[in-house]
Amino acid sequence: MAEILDVNDGSFEAEVLNSDTPVIVDFWAEWCAPCRQIAPIIKDLAADYDGRIKVVKVNVDDSHQTAGAYGIRSIPAVLAFKDGQVVEQMVGARPKANFLELAEKLA
Length: 107
Fold this sequence. Notes:
By secondary structure, this protein is an alpha/beta fold.
């Protein structure tokens, strides 16, 4: 089973921006109901694309600097990174098909 890394302001650059593989970043918070709603989808993506895409979570309450740097104003926000650059983003709870489409673009 693929591991979903918890990334924060201190580890974001190493784990996301300097990653050799594409990265899906889930910006979330404990109190966010839609974030909890998409959590199983994010977990499935990590398993289904293990080895091809890295999946990480950033808690916006703990990582203000990173959330601010990427203009995160609404959560859940899912950003796709390739070669250290944002190539796609989605905000809000969406159907699983939308997340699969995002992952397929990266894989």
